[in-house]
Specification:
By secondary structure, the chain is α+β, with helices and mostly antiparallel strands. It has one domain. It has 4 helices and 12 strands, in the order H-H-E-E-E-E-E-E-E-E-E-E-H-E-E-H. Strands 1, 2, 3, 4, 5, 8, 9 and 10 form an 8-stranded antiparallel sheet that branches. It has a 4-stranded antiparallel sheet with strand order 7-6-11-12. Helix 2 runs parallel beside helix 4 and helix 3 crosses helix 4. The longest helix is centred in the last third of the chain and has 17 residues.
Amino acid sequence: MSSSSYSSASDVDILKEACVSLKTPAKRIECLDAIGRVNFTTKKDAIHPLPAPAEKAFPELAHEDWAKLVSVKNDSFSKDIQFSGISKNEGKTFGSPEYSWKANAFLGKTSGLDTYMISFNDLYVAAKWKMWTWASSDRAEDLKILQGHRDVSSCGAGTCLFSEPLGIMVDRKFMIDAANQGIWIKLKSQTGEEFSLKVSSEDASALLSAVAECKLNLC
């Protein structure tokens, strides 16, 4: 690696401290990400995992520690480094969450580009599939849905236990806006069901911080 390829460690540390001092989450993340873009490399021998998620409760963490709540998967079998955010859930079906969701990110090892998705699963007892097919943000923005592998089991008396996973595709701007004030997403099914979930400021900030730290530290 040539000396001109990256900023020196001391320069990066100084810039990083300046970024962390910014009060607005979105500005802080943008600043860290800018350093990460300059510092990012695709060399395999430069890639290493991030620290394990912190054991502390989320509200007690300082802003600069939010990234530690995001799990990171980096292996040689994938072209992307995968980030799995904070799990949320609502309701119960046989002791398991009825609705569950979390924000995820994917960082291309070759391109250095980051993409984002909200994974969602509905576990329910019914006579037929709900078929979630439509999603929109509280900013009247239609969002693309990717259907996951549906599963059905435990049928009896005309009903079954259904598991219906899907991915809601969002862009980086969506996540930055969510980091500022949170964004609600409404889902609608073909059977007329509706469900709203929130990508909170904490959720988005944690995920964006993890991606920025990964670029910065060459994870």
